[in-house]
Design a protein that fits this description.
Blueprint lengths: L1 E2 L22 E2 L16 E8 L9 H16 L7 E8 L19 H11 L5 E2 L4 H13 L4 E4 L15 E3 L4 H15 L5 E6 L2 H12 L9 E4 L1 H6 L4 H11 L4 E5 L2 H13 L5 E4 L6 H4 L8 E4 L11 H11 L15 H20 L5 H10 L1 E2 L7 E2 L10 E7 L10 E3 L4 E3 L9 E3 L13
Helix pairs in contact: 1-10, 1-11, 2-3, 4-5, 7-8, 11-12
């Protein structure tokens, strides 16, 4: 069932932008009447998410669309423990509708107002895969007070790893801090003596990423530690990107780390090209997906990935994800057998499989408290190349990944990345936590019930 995004009647002012980390339509089930366990009936379980379908972060559209494709595939094959999954997704315009002219959900739309619709009107069992640091920070207390699990937040902020304060809150992707620590190790080993620059989004995304770089022992001068305000760039009131790139060129930065969303990654690369500036770019996994960045200028940039290469024929998850996307003509009408699977699509499929695994293990008697305990007690099989394992003391999610290089595609924009070596790095958010290195990739088998 397709419906337009709905807004709560209470107007809530927009808050500052941040990342997280969807198709043009919003797939949603009919609103469930409240039950003993909200969102759960004899035949269905309703979950929801707020995601940017329009506006500056709409390039993340394939993420929740791929998750929905997984749920649709599962439903067509009998569901889980006798129930089908309804995934209700609402456009929150990345929580900045008030300043984003490209937002189509309405200027008063916020992550909180849309989350209130999911909880009070649609009675979701949990939010699953909602996107954006600032937006999800803004609803943590609301979801906690209503007893709603906040699962697999699409953002690498360290905020999701606070099980004592928010016991129902779980992250998914490798954190920005852990990613920064891994980048620092790689830079010190491969670019020793080079001048380092940094451009980050002026929020937890950029702050956490920079913290990881410094925790990892990297030294960056204050003159080369720069940032951009997305809201300012949207309204045209700032020339942050132009000035930042020019500053780094003037200061002779030879390696530049970007903690930027895809649209701003593109902008930074284009500004640098216009200035004839070509450092070695190292781009956060959040802003490096080549099909979203969509410029030949990204070729040769380094990034982090926690999923197998989309060209990896030995990994069974790649053909499985392709099969799932091909079957979902509603979310992926133009996807073909020869289409490139994007990083965003693997991400969405990854957390959807994680949720399905936990739901399967929960059994027929589904409760919110029981689901959280299940999440904390098992290793979830997903397409990721690093384990997804939570505990009562760790709700962050994936703990690492491997270095990849964006592959050139002639004069066209890149579509894939290639491995740089075979080291799989793992670490936590703690400064003292060491980085462990494995050289063998453990391919997680696809559970038999998912095939």
């Amino acid at each position: 069932m397709i419906r337009k995004a709905k807004r709560a009647t209470t107007l809530v002012s927009a808050v500052a932008l941040s990342l997280g980390m969807v198709s043009t339509g919003l797939l949603a089930g009919n609103a469930n009447a409240a039950t003993a366990t909200p969102g759960v009936t004899a035949k269905t379980i309703t979950i929801g998410a707020t995601v940017p379908f329009s506006g500056i972060a709409a390039s993340y559209a394939p993420v929740s669309a791929a998750a929905n494709a997984v749920f649709t595939y599962i439903n067509k094959h009998g569901g889980i423990n006798g129930r089908t999954i309804k995934y209700d997704r609402l456009d929150d315009c990345y929580n900045i509708a008030a300043v984003d002219a490209k937002c189509t959900a309405g200027a008063s739309t916020t992550t909180l107002s849309q989350t209130q619709v999911l909880v009070a009107q649609d009675h979701v069992f949990a939010t699953v895969g909602a996107l954006g640091t600032a937006g999800q920070d803004s609803v943590r207390s609301y979801l906690k007070s209503n007893g709603v699990p906040q699962l697999f937040v699409n953002s690498g902020s360290a905020d999701w790893d606070q099980p004592s304060a928010y016991p129902n809150l779980f992250g998914f992707q490798t954190s920005y801090v852990a990613e920064g620590k891994i980048f620092a190790r790689y830079i010190k080993a491969n670019f020793a003596g080079k001048t380092i620059g940094f451009i980050g989004q002026n929020d937890d995304f950029g702050a956490n990423g920079y913290l990881g770089l410094t925790d990892g022992g990297l030294s960056i001068s204050s003159a080369n530690h720069l940032g951009y305000s997305t809201a300012d760039a949207i309204t045209g009131s700032s020339s942050d990107l132009q000035q930042d790139v020019l500053t780094l060129k003037t200061n002779g930065a030879q390696v530049v780390v970007l903690d930027s969303v895809p649209g701003f990654t593109t902008g930074i690369l284009e500004v640098a090209h216009a200035l004839s500036y070509s450092p070695q770019w190292i781009i956060s996994s959040v802003g490096s997906d080549p099909t979203s960045v969509a410029t030949p200028l990204e070729a040769g940039a380094l990034s982090l990935d926690y999923f197998p290469a989309v060209t990896d024929k030995a990994d069974p998850w790649i053909p499985w994800v392709r099969k799932v996307l091909l079957a979902d003509k509603a979310d992926f009408p133009t996807f073909t057998a020869s289409s490139v699977i994007t990083g965003n699509e693997l991400y969405g499929a990854g957390y959807a499989v994680g949720f399905a695994e936990a739901l399967k293990a929960e059994g027929r008697n589904v409760t919110r408290a029981g689901f959280v305990k299940t999440m904390e007690s098992m290793t979830l099989n997903t397409p990721a190349i690093v384990p997804l394992k939570f505990s009562k003391n760790n709700h962050q999610g994936l703990l690492g990944g491997l270095i990849v290089k964006i592959a050139a595609n002639g004069t066209a924009a890149p579509t894939t990345a290639t491995l740089v070596g075979h080291n799989i790095y793992s670490t936590t958010n703690t400064k003292a936590s060491p980085i462990t290195v494995a050289t063998k990739m453990d391919i997680t088998p696809i559970p038999s019930w998912l095939k």
